[in-house]
Design goal:
Layout lengths: L6 E5 L7 H8 L5 E5 L12 E6 L2 H11 L3 E2 L2 E2 L1 E4 L6 H4 L7 H8 L4
Antiparallel strand pairs: 1-3, 1-6, 2-3, 4-5
């Protein structure tokens, strides 16, 4: 499970946020490869967060630095490095069952 340094998580989005408003908010920092705004599968309403993927890692870092805790439509948005997702089969078992996790937290410090 590797982090993608070009992928930015944007939380606490206003309900009015759509593709064009998120794009306009983040384009000053560099070329955007993709924007994903998840919706609830039942209600089809936006879930209040998005993922912005930049072409360059440096652009993502600039966006995080400049937009974290900034205001978008009277809401303070959270902008940070996106965490890696676990594969679907990993979702069915506890986190500590992952070999990497187990090795990291069970080895003795040197």
């Amino acid at each position: 499970m590797q982090k993608d340094p070009k992928l930015v998580y944007v939380g606490n989005l206003p309900k009015s946020a759509d593709y064009s408003s998120v794009h306009e908010y983040f384009i000053p920092f560099g070329d955007i490869k993709e924007i994903h705004i998840p919706v609830d599968p039942i209600t089809q309403e936006k879930r209040g967060f998005a993922f912005v993927e930049y072409e360059e890692e440096e652009d993502a870092q600039h966006a995080i630095f400049n937009r974290h805790n900034s205001t978008m439509s009277d809401k303070t948005v959270v902008v940070e490095q996106a965490r890696p997702t676990r594969s679907r089969d990993m979702l069915q078992r506890p986190l500590w069952a992952d070999e990497d996790y187990y090795q990291k937290y069970t080895t003795e410090p040197k």
